[in-house]
Amino acid sequence: MPDTPRAHRSDEQPDGGSGRVSFRNVPGSPVENRRQLLVKVSWMLLWMVYLLYPVSDLLKGGHSPSATVAGWTALAVFVGCYIGLVVLRSTAGTRPTACRVVVATMVLTAIVTAFGLGTAWLTLFTYASVAVGIIAPARFALAGVGAMAGLTVVVGLLSRADGGDIPTLALTAFLSGAAMTGLQRLVATMRELREARAAVAHLAASEERLRMARDLHDLLGHSLSLITLKSELAGRLMDGGKDEAARAQVADIEGVARQSLIDVREAVTGFRRPTLPVELAAARTALAAAQVGLEASPELVDAWPGLATEEAGALAWALREAVTNIVRHGEGATVCTVRADETWEGDGERFAVLEIADNGAGPGKSGPGNGLSGLEERLALVGGRLETGPGDRGRGFRLRALVPLRTVPVA
After folding, report:
1. pLDDT for the residue numbered 275
2. Residue 76 to residue 224: CA distance in whole angstroms
3. What pTM was computed for the model?
4. 3-state DSSP call for residue 331?
5. From residue 364, how far is each of 73, 87, 373, 376 by CA, in Å?
6. Which domains are seen in the chain, by residue range?
7. Strand bridging mode 397-404 / 350-358
8. Residue 148, SS3 per DSSP
């Protein structure tokens, strides 16, 4: 398989400028800055298209000057309440009472304008129904939306609106509110999933710390006890004039201490060795913080269950390096794709292939850096190799790590 040209995307070099400013926020989470709030409000304003009906009603000039002024004022109040509700729901520390007051004002404005200005203003009930779906508790949300649809029918009949428009307006109000209710439940579920994932990560870290403490206790407890006993024995032998026996005990103490040091180093090395499942979970968190989506099949975690420890660790290092490059240097990247595959070389040797690609601006024209060079050395130590270059259709950056698929028996 021919080598593809490598490009410098090292995570060892610090960024010269500041990080990318995100204009997006995760659904269901509080906005982090004013830019995100402005973007969210702008998106919500796109749904104000139904206000063309009351606006056109005012522009036709069919009302008296005082009624026209009152209509524009009511419309401004309604839109202000709508935007205010979005702001209140987007900022941390949501105030339920304030939200209820805002929604009540919207409903009252819709009722007054429908009676005072005509059928065109019944469209305000659609937005009022959506607002009710936003603030109502989950178990009462659908009932509240249905009540708003019923209120639309009642107000339409009492205001002598066109009978053919009332069912359409009521159905629109109900469906819009019901859709918002479903969206709120989806957002709540996403929030719970994020909290659960954070809790799982915390528990995993705690479990690993406990394992490390348990290993160190098992390794050092016996050795330190033995060193203490032999030190006391050596002291007594020296006091009794038995120098040769004391030297033998000191030699034993030295041997136990050296072996303890070796055991601790091996334990720490095993503790620091990355694994593919752990690095995949860390990659998902890091990419989410950089507003980059991760596309990886669930089978990736168990793609090579019997792969040797050193080869599996090399693939985990490759995933870490690639994700770090995307977070630091992947300008414009929105998706990171991770794939697992196998390939046969010309000499008949089978290789496990881990491919990580993004859809950003690409690697540019810089040379190889320390991060990729170090990764290439890691792969070479286990008989593998590194391939880097542009992604599909020349966009983004692709990293392929190949290691020999020499499996070991699964315990």
Report:
1. 79
2. 78
3. 0.46
4. coil
5. 55, 40, 17, 20
6. 34-194 (no CATH), 195-272 (1.20.5), 276-404 (3.30.565.10)
7. antiparallel
8. helix
